[in-house]
Amino acid sequence: MNALAHLIAGHELPFWTITIGVVANIPTAMLGCYLVLRRMSLMGDAISHAVLPGIVLGFLWSHSLAGWGIFVGAVVMGLITAMLTQTINTYARVPEDSSMGVVFTSLFALGVFLITNLARNFDLDPGCVLYGLIEAAPLDTVSWLGVEVPRALGPMFAALVATCVFVAVFWKELKISSFDPALATAMGYRATAMHYALMAMVAVVTVASFEAVGSIIVIAMLVVPAATAHLLTDRFGRMMLLAVGVSIVSTVMGYWSAAALDTTVAGMMGVAAGVQLAAAVIFSPRYGLVGKAANSLALSMRIVGEDIVAMLYRAEELAGQSRRGLPEKLSLRHCVRAVGGGLTARLAVPYLWRRGAIALAGGELTLTDRGRRLAQSLVRSHRLWEAFLTEHFQLPLDHVHAPAERIEHFIGPQLQESLAEDLRAPSVDPHGRDIPPTT
Amino acid sequence: MNAAASPDVLLSGAQPVLDVHDVTVAYHRKPVLWDIDLTLAEPTLAGIVGPNGAGKSTFIKAVLGLVPLASGQVRVFGQELAAVRKRIGYVPQRESVDWDFPVTVLDVVLMGTYGKLGWFRRPGSAERRWAHECLDRVGLADLAARQIGQLSGGQQQRTFLARALAQEAELYLMDEPMAGVDAATEQVVFGLLEELRQAGKTVLVVHHDLRTVVKYYETVIMLNMRLVATGPTDEVFTHENLRKTYGGRLAILDAAGEAVAAQERSA
Amino acid sequence: MTGWLAYNTAIVLAGTMLLGASCGLVGCFAVLRRRALLGDALAHAALPGVGVAFLLANERSMPVLLLGALVSGLLGVVIVAVLRFATRTKDDAAIGAVLGVASALGFVLIRVIQDRTTTGSKAGLASYILGKTAGMIAQDVYLMAAVSAGCLAIVWFFYKEFKAIAFDPGFAKVQGWPVLALDFLLTGLIAVAVVVGLPAVGGLLITALLIIPAVSARFWTDSLGRMLMLSTLLGGAIGACGTALSAQFSFSPAGPVIVLVGTAAFTGSMLLAPRRGLIARGLDEARFRRRLARQKLLRMLYELDEAAGGGPRPFELADVGVTIARIDAMARDGLATPVGAGRYLLTASGREQGARAARASRLWHLFLSEHADLAPSYADLDAERIDTILPDEMIRELESRLLADGSWPVELPPPAMEACR
User: Fold this and answer.
1) Which of A124, A426, C68, C246 lies in the 20 to 30 Å Cα band around A22?
2) ∠C97-C99-C102 over CA atoms, to 5°?
3) Which element (helix H / strand E) includes C174?
4) How far apart are the CA of C154 and the nearest CA of chain A, in angstroms?
5) pLDDT digits (tens, 9 = 90+) for B141-192
6) How many cross-chain Cβ pairs, A to C, lie less than 8 Å apart?
7) Strand C315-316 vs strand B71-76: parallel, antiparallel, or unpaired?
8) Are strands B30-40 and B18-27 parallel, antiparallel or unpaired?
């Protein structure tokens, strides 16, 4: 305990600054997941701007930035934004994005106007509201259970708890109304009510975190962690956890990099979140640019490679049948050209060779035993599919090769078996060629 | 007609499954559905047909209360919609949801049980078992843990169907469950619809392939902004009514003509 | 001293007016192309460019800063496009992410610069965030005038092409127009207008100038040409009024005041515009509903009489589900008369109107089933508009068919027979 108190008191360790950042950014990231998945990120942007007049009016009313006044003001403004956007869109038929643009820029302008003109007579610093003042927040403390705690932490912590409760209690309702609002409404869950509840919560967390990040960068903390997490996972719960993780990393990275560059912590938190998003965009295993390119390259290499071994197999087959003794070997150049040439074809040869499917001697390719087994299975799939198409869809013979050529790469042993069963284990394909046995 | 013949219906004093009275849905001045009057007295498997833009989807949404009615009312099982929501299942169009949404196939099917659970209660192991069972019935048990975006079109459609099964509803409204599925999946889907019908449920399906209407549906609802005709398929699905529904769209009429001719041959 | 003030005010007035006008002009396309908030992303994304340009040029020269803003704003748009098309991120999240991260980066850079350089240039950079009209000098106004003239010239020159891609990009593409290039040009125009406005209104509010004049103008007209003109004028007026107000009452910065003047203009247009305005439309809608309800009631009453055969018969209010207020209104219009407690009778003119409504409804019904392929695109809830919607020959043909199968309302004179051959 003493050690902790010492740590907290020590100025070299920015314990409270980071705590404030983390507590402020976690609920923002959680709600951001819903915004991103509902394609309502811009509503989050709009609300985060539009709460500004609410903050100012709440402040003028309660003369405090720590009181409940600013929360009430912000929730009212948040709901007004959502409702006005909807109303102007529906009744005045202004396109939704323009309608949102008019509403939130107007409210934000009102806020800036109030803050720069009226509030100058009061103790309200525009810079603090707009850009956050996380650096100074730990200095204004209250005593709580004998520990000096930053005053700003109180409302932020309340917002964090409120968000966790909201998400936990309405987990199922939020999920279904985000995924399929029509079904949710049809089931009797009021999707509209959930929408406005969510908007009110966004207003709450926006206000709670403005002292940490300011009312402008909060949009980055709403959208970026969620967008990053969405690129990394396919599970909703995990997405929320990841988003929280991204926001914590952003806070810590933001603090240290701001200290190093001697600049604004709030700004660096936004930038740190952006860096993580960029990393996810590029390196996410499944949805990142590199991952996607690698996957598609690997797939096309597999397909081209399989085409090459199947071609070698057919060549062997023909050589076996023909009395003229056609060559079982094919030249490397011939093979590459036959499968369409290009980079993937050129890469496919070393790929096959490394897998031990082909042997390369004197510029000519031959199948290894292993390659032959692979090819046999492919050719079996191909010919079974041709037989299947002819049997069930009465396709003419010259129409069955092309679909089979594509699908052969995706027919696993299981499907192969059920195809064979369905066709009563045929021994020849519709063209009269042998269907090789299973390997 | 058939209602009189069924003693169960008479004894229970049963209300019609669906009673749509004088319903008009309009986009500003433009009617999408105009003065629709329709009663389904008894459980049935019904196909809703009509050209593009004829208001088929809107009809389903109007029944579900998803679009505002300019006039008229809808009663289901003789009651206001709000009272019977839990007894209605819905399969929306496939395009209506975001397939990048981070949920698994099982999650989606579980959503079917949400209606019965009501506010705050979470699906438990009983619901999970049930969802697995529904998935099994559409042949997707192996894919339960997949993210929904990784399914093929037909599999996505079947996932929606499993979700509808999980709803354990008595009236099902399905918006083009056959759009973009292959012939084999279509067979599977209809097998299920037929099962539901056998179990005494009512199933309304927006259907676009006129050639298969006669084969699959005992009742047909022909819509073209107005209700053109409704009733037993073999009585109502006629050349005359098709012309009134589709006008002079020759290609469609030819296709339908074949179907009607086939029906006449078999009759 | 007053002379200097007046000169300074005139400069600022001219500058904000030109700025409002050019934003109003290009904003029309942003709004029509549903790109309103892409402009917002662009404006925010311009902020880091200002910082980088300052660091590179190491001085506050407006053209250099604006060039930096332009480059980074457009880069932001490109990043939005990459996120949208190359990953599973949807466009709203892409715009939100770029907007948020870019403003964060902008603040960081501007703070770094402020701390490093002498006090003289501090205010200069901060004004790119919230705007500072007072800092405007004659050179800035010349720049704005040049930009406005440039925008006008380009819009003038490419009017037809821009109109096509704003209205139906798919069609424009099929027509063989370089939609992508035109789109890029349009985005470039928006970017230039936004960037030039940055020092005056600030990156956080410049979007308002892009959207507000355009959507306000849209309420007053349906023609693109007039909308462009109106939006340009309105933008100029908003800029000038806002500046004048803020100078008069010494509000600073002027940016928010300009936007609030715009908000007032928008609210006024939304409420008051004839035809498309909320009030006009609400009144129209209420009138229309009343008319429809009355048409429906008269038709129902007429058809009841028709089914029973013979002359008009009195009806009970309760039976037909009509309120006293409604029947009173009808009595005032001479359509029904009271014949005892809660009982009413249609007058001759009421019956005639009922018959007309019945005719219209039956004509529609016939039309819909005879021409099922085209009918839905013609249908109108106001059944009696059928005579103005369908061509005369069509009406004649349908009427003769009604007459032939005996469903013509007897109350009405038979249709002109010459078409019945």
Assistant:
1) A124
2) 100
3) helix C169-174
4) 24
5) 888 888 998 888 888 888 999 999 999 899 999 998 888 777 777 888 888 8
6) 209
7) unpaired
8) antiparallel
Min distance B135 CA to chain A CA atoms (Å): 18
Q: Report how far residue C192's alpha carbon sits from residue C189's, in angstroms, rounded to the nearest whole number.
A: 5
Confidence at residue C112, expressed as pLDDT on a 0 to 100 scale: 82
Any bridge partners for residue B38, and if so which? B20
**DSSP secondary structure, B19-85, as one string:** EEEEEEEEETTEEEEEEEEEEE-S--EEEEE--TTSSHHHHHHHHHT-S--SEEEEEETTB-HHHHG
Task: Check if the beta carbon of residue C144 is closer than 8 Å to that of residue C239.
Answer: no
Decide: helix, strand or coil at residue B18: strand
Closest CA to A183 of B175, B137, B138: B175
Q: Dihedral angle at the C-alpha atoms of C76, C77, C81, C84, nearest 10 degrees?
A: 70
Q: What are phi and psi of A147, to 5 degrees?
A: -105, 140
Rounded to 5 degrees, what angle do the CA atoms C305, C307, C310 make? 55
Tell how strand B219-224 and strand B30-40 pair up: unpaired
Where chain A has pLDDT below 70, the residues are: 1-13, 64-67, 119-127, 321-329
For chain A, list the contacting chains (3+ Cβ pairs, <8 Å). Answer: B, C
pLDDT band (50, 70, 90) for residue B256: low
Q: Cβ contacts of residue A82 below 8 Å, gap of 6+?
A: A43, A47, A195, A196, A199
To probe the interface with B, which of A93, A185, A187 has the most B CB atoms within 10 Å?
A187
Q: What angle do CA A260, A262, A267 make, to 5 degrees?
A: 100
Q: What would the two tokens of residue B210 be?
A: 């006129």
**What SS3 state is found at A365?**
strand
The alpha carbon torsion through A410, A416, A422, A427 (nearest 10 deg) reads 120
State the pTM of this model: 0.85
CA A92 to the chain's CA centroid: 35
pLDDT in tens, A289-310: 888 888 888 888 888 888 888 8
Alpha helices in chain B (DSSP H): 2-5, 7-12, 56-64, 81-84, 105-111, 114-117, 125-137, 153-166, 183-198, 213-216, 233-236, 239-246, 250-266
Task: Write out residues in chain C with pLDDT < 70, as ranges.
Answer: 1-5, 59-60, 117-126, 310, 375, 416-421
State ipTM.
0.85
Residues 96-155 of B with CB under 8 A from A: 96-98, 100-104, 107-108, 111, 114-115, 117, 119-123, 147, 149
- Residue B234 near residue B267, CB atoms below 8 Å: yes
Look at the alpha carbons of A215, A216, A219, A224 in this order and tell me if their dihedral is positive or negative. negative
Report the distance separating Cα A173 and Cα A164, nearest Å.
14
Q: Are C145 and C17 in contact (CB under 8 A)?
A: no
